[in-house]
Amino acid sequence: MRLLVTGGAGFIGANFVRQTVADRPDVRVTVLDALTYAGNRESLDSVADRIEFVKGDIADTALVDELTAETDAVVHFAAESHNDNSLADPWPFVQTNIVGTFALLQAVRRHGVRFHHVSTDEVFGDLTSDDPPFSELTPYNPSSPYSATKASSDLLVRAWARSFGVRATLSNCSNNYGPYQHVEKFIPRQITNLIDGQRPRLYGAGHQIRDWIHVDDHNHAVWAVLERGAAGRSYLIGADGETDNLTVIRMLLAEFDRSPDDFDHVTDRPGHDQRYAIDATRLRTELGWTPRYANFRDGLAATVRWYRENEAWWRPYKEHTEDAYRKAGERVLPL
Ligand code: NAD
Ligand code: TDX
User: Fold this and answer.
1) What residue owns the CA closest to ligand 1's atom 37?
2) Active site residue ranges
3) NAD(P)-binding domain spans which residues (predicted)?
4) How confident is the model at residue 285 (pLDDT cuts 50, 70, 90)?
5) Which amino acid residue places its CA nearest to atom 10 of ligand 1?
6) Mean per-residue pLDDT of the chain
7) How close is the Cα of 301 to the center of ligand 1, in Å?
8) Are residues 25 and 53 in the same domain?
9) For residue 334, what pLDDT band results from cuts at 50, 70 and 90?
10) How far is the CA of 80 from the centre of ligand 1 (A)?
């Protein structure tokens, strides 16, 4: 099988590529990645001689057409993925997440190629503490420019499946954690702050809830949908990992033997979604998927070890990322 993986130098895509090379020697992987600030070829070093890597933009229609003509399936991870960046400058999100997905859909339509679209639970907006978790029937109601552009791309995929018969599936996953995640994101940002002897930075009071899943569990689910998912259907991916941000910070502080209050409250994110939670019944019952990382605390401890042991991977990004947060106006709050 020939597989084209877009965004394969990013966090989830690179973990997907390494997992695929390790578990499925019959799959020939080509990565298409623009190597934006979020892409890092070093994340693919261990498999570099077993894959083909193409540096390019998913909105480059000629390139996408050429690569799609030579593949059996596309797994589409490439995106602008960080909410805070989408608040500072939404344009790249519109360009990559919407226009880029459109270019891929036109190409798979032309060549009759199987397509899997990797999306997020943020397309559903947020929940209060009393609401039931998101399911495949929850209406779309995105809050941020990031989630609005991901929702738009999902709607394009659904329309191309219905109107043009594209063999497309979608998955909407909750917050991922694990190795090779950019230091702009919540968990790696705090881990690397702690390695540097700095205080973790919690947005507002930290009562927001995210449904954490290990990146390997997400990627096993992507394979389950790719192999056994029904065309035109969406699958929600989550591992019952609901935890509020304050609790995550305290779990990390404990990993570093620091006091539970040794962190800063900083300026909150505008429009900050309160709670995400996933009901993954369809994925579990129809496709037989179960997560392997049952315990978030253990997965988090392994992730801390990975960042301690792989400083050379993240160090070049740290200072610039913290500088960007400062320039965006992040301030310590007197709470
Ligand atoms: P990431 O930001 O770490 O990686 C994105 C990758 O896409 C990078 O390698 C980047 O270079 C590449 N890219 C960006 N624009 C491109 C373009 N125009 N052409 C080609 N490549 C381009 O993102 P991630 O966290 O790995 O997320 C991957 C996918 O999973 C995204 O679609 C995201 O919406 C979705 N998702 C992420 C999470 C999460 O918790 N991180 C949860 C659910 C879904
Ligand atoms: O320094 C921080 N302090 C903090 O309290 C950062 C960076 C974040 N936060 C909070 C904001 C969120 O409530 O932590 C939570 C997680 O933040 P992010 O890592 O930015 O993730 P989120 O906005 O929830 O979105 C993530 O999950 C869904 C991914 O970035 C998306 O790509 C994915 O679709």
Assistant:
1) 120
2) 121-122, 146
3) 4-298
4) very high
5) 39
6) 98
7) 24
8) yes
9) confident
10) 6
* Ligand 1 mutation pick, 5, 12, 172, max ligand atoms within 8 A of CB: 12
What does the pLDDT look like over 180-192, one tens digit per residue?
999 999 999 999 9
- Beta-carbon count within 10 A of 246 CB: 17
> The CATH number of the domain where 46 resides is what?
3.40.50.720
Range 134-148 average pLDDT = 98
Give how far Cα 17 sits from Cα of 5, 74, 153, Å: 8, 12, 23
Identify any residues that bridge with 171 across adjacent strands, giving them in sequence order: 118, 235
235: tokens are 């699958």
**3-class secondary-structure state, position 96:** helix
Domain count across the chain: 2
Is 335 contained in some domain? Answer: no
For the chain, the 3-state helix, strand and coil shares in percent, each to the nearest 5, are: 45, 15, 35
Residue 271 belongs to domain spanning: 186-209+243-276+296-327
β-pairing, 242-244 vs 209-211, is antiparallel
Taking the centre of ligand 2 as the mean of its atom positions, its distance from the CA of residue 163, in whole angstroms, is: 35
Does one domain contain both 301 and 218?
Answer: no
Token duo for residue 288: 């037989």
- What CATH number is attached to the domain comprising 202? 3.90.25.10
pLDDT digits (tens, 9 = 90+) for 201-216: 999 999 999 999 999 9
User: Is there a domain that residue 266 lies in?
Assistant: yes
Pair (84, 228) in one structural domain: yes
Is the same domain home to 34 and 83? yes
Residue type, 18: R
